[in-house]
């Protein structure tokens, strides 16, 4: 049997993901399992234009392909049962792995993990937000800086059995103003690796070629100019930047 055409074959809804803030559905295209987010189901936001979140999700995927590391699963725009929307290949994550976690402050691992912050849980106990210290998660943290991700929650990181880490839910990205909110602050001040710098360089170069042409259909000229400026600033600094501005540096809720 021929593989289905992911752009034109029938998209059938099989369920709804009720934990999402926007209308999000599980579906299938032939035997391919996908996530479908129709533009018509996007909730209005005060700081992002209405009806643009699906485009930003696709833009994040296109940029991740140039940046490297397969950060974002295959994502594209197409028509569906509820109109045009974002479609993304479903990823079966490993439930035994937690790349980001809340642990008692006296139980923070000494190696292999990065400390982000601490506070009190609903029972008044001191807990710490930590994340694993892995190349895959570092790559995602750099990617988030570039795309100006305003909503990198812990549950937006999918841990795969082979050690790969996929990022999902990239609707709140590419704003021209600084919006970075993430749980991945553990490398603050550390120098970027040669591989990470190469990824930034590929994006900067791509903005003057095919990547720039593709993003022009999804983002505004001001947003693309701000993207280029972030790449240049990050490349010049050569390290993970510190939080800046008056807004919270982490999303809420954290997961």
List the helices and strands and how they pair.
Elements lengths: L10 E6 L8 E5 L2 E7 L14 H15 L7 E4 L6 E5 L10 E5 L8 E8 L5 E7 L2 H13 L9 E3 L5 E3 L26 H13 L3 H6 L5 H17 L18
Antiparallel strand pairs: 1-2, 2-3, 3-5, 4-5, 6-8, 7-8, 9-10
Helix pairs in contact: 3-5
Summarize this entry quickly.
The chain has five helices and ten strands; from the N terminus they run E-E-E-H-E-E-E-E-E-H-E-E-H-H-H.
Question: Which key phrases capture this entry?
Answer:
2 domains, 255 residues, 25% helix, three-stranded antiparallel beta sheet, globular, alpha+beta
> What is the C-alpha radius of gyration, as a whole number of Å?
18 Å
Largest sheet: 5 strands, antiparallel
Assembly state (oligomeric): single chain
Tally the helices: what do you get? 5
Query: Beta-strand percentage?
Result: 15-25%
Note the run of SSEs as H and E: EEEHEEEEEHEEHHH
- How confident is the prediction overall: mean pLDDT? 96
Total domain units: 2
Low-confidence runs of at least 5 consecutive residues: none
Side-by-side strand order of the widest sheet? 1-2-3-5-4
Separation of the first and last Cα atoms:
40 Å
Shape: globular
- Tell me the structural class: alpha+beta
* Helix content class: 25-40%
Q: Write down how many β-strands occur, each being a DSSP E stretch of 2 or more residues.
A: 10
